[in-house]
Amino acid sequence: MRIIGHLDMDAFFAAVEERNKPRLKKLPIVVGSDPANGRGRGVVSTANYRARKYGIHSATPISIAWRLSQKAKKEGKPEVVFLGVNFADYEKVSLEIMEIIHKYSSLVEEASIDEAYFDLSYAGSYEAAEEIAKKIKKEIKRKEKLTASVGIGPNKLIAKIASDKNKPDGLTVIGSDNEERNIKLAEIFLKDLPIRKIPGIGPKTEKLFDKLGIRLVKDLKKFSKKELEKILGKWGGELYLKIRGRDDSPLVEEWTAKSIGEQETFSEDTLDPNFTVGRIIELSRGVFDRFKKSEFKNFGTIVITVRFSGFETKNRSHTLQNPINTSDDLQFEAVKMLMPFLDKRENPERKKIRLVGIRIEKLN
């Protein structure tokens, strides 16, 4: 019998900031780019649950988040505290959390900085698995002063969706010791959920089905496998299984960071080469500082992101002949890759630039 757990930290970045800064206790917090009094150009990275009550969520434009904060202030509510992103702190806390999870499971897939799947099949029953999950949550709260939500199910898909069911500080179990019954329980659990809850369904797919009057999982089940494949290609066949709670994907134990990156949205669109090059150099330094604090020794690929004023976004990658590990080399390569965006090679219409970013990959 397969029993899988999924742990998701609650509003992780904001929770770490609140823990580290007692003065912020019980205040609405947003971690992301500078709102610049409503003129900010980036987005929200994480909003804590008090800020979410104002209508602020991850990926909300920071200017809108600021306006919602001002609206709340006029209504006599606490103003939102806006903070920059501090990846070094978050990565350090993440390592401690993953270490705790590894104590309770010999097979852990670290899916991201704030979430992980872990195998609880050894527990032998869902009741015993639930007790183990309670111990993990309790230890994280005691050692890190943070809360986590956990979902338990017969596969990764159900466990992940379950972990989101009762946030924050939730524990949701979907399954029984009868494997045949688990298939039915999974379908019952999913049927009334919005289709967006299914991993892989993003805004575009949601919009596509919305035009067809499909909003809930049970509506989506009206399509045959062939019909979904006709609409979505190969992914349609995978989706056919997902909305029925079926997922045989294994846990990938050896997880490593796929990349380290940073980006910046400018306060004004620009084509000023001195300013743009200066920012990519500064971003390169930030990425390299995080790289040096990691366990990795080299990186082999550099990726540049440029977003123009019309929101057209281009990514360019360069895989080096030999991996590098110095800040000077990274800055040199980053500037070399950026330059074509400042002339006709990558920017023939001379569009102003709104955002630049840099990412390193193939870490080893």
Describe it.
The protein has 364 residues and is α+β, with helices and mostly antiparallel strands. The protein contains 13 helices and twelve strands. Among the domains are: 72 residues, MutS, DNA mismatch repair protein, domain I; 57 residues, DNA polymerase, domain 1; 105 residues, 2-Layer Sandwich (Dna Ligase, domain 1), CATH 3.30.1490.100. α4 runs antiparallel to α5, α10 crosses α11 and α12 packs antiparallel against α13. The two termini are 36 Å apart.
CATH homologous superfamily grouping of one domain: DNA polymerase, Y-family, little finger domain
Rg result: 22 Å
Number of strands: 12
Query: If you average the pLDDT, what whole number results?
Result: 92
CATH class of one domain: Alpha Beta
Biggest sheet statistics: 5 strands, mixed
CATH topology annotation of one domain = Dna Ligase, domain 1
Derived structural class: alpha+beta
Strand order of the largest sheet: 5-6-1-7-8
From the coordinates shown, what is the CATH architecture of one domain?
2-Layer Sandwich
> What percentage of residues falls in helices of 4 or more residues?
40-55%
Oligomer: single chain
The low-confidence parts are: none
How much strand? 15-25%
N→C terminal distance: 36 Å
Q: Any idea what the shape is? A: globular
Task: Describe the secondary structure blueprint for this structure.
Blueprint: E1 4-9, H1 12-20, E2 29-32, E3 44-47, H2 49-52, H3 62-74, E4 81-83, H4 87-104, E5 108-112, E6 115-119, H5 126-144, E7 148-153, H6 156-163, E8 171-173, H7 179-191, H8 203-211, H9 217-220, H10 225-232, H11 234-242, E9 259-270, H12 273-293, E10 299-308, E11 313-324, H13 327-338, E12 353-363
Parallel strand pairs: 2-4, 7-8
Antiparallel strand pairs: 1-6, 1-7, 2-3, 5-6, 9-12, 10-11, 10-12
Helix pairs in contact: 4-5, 10-11, 12-13
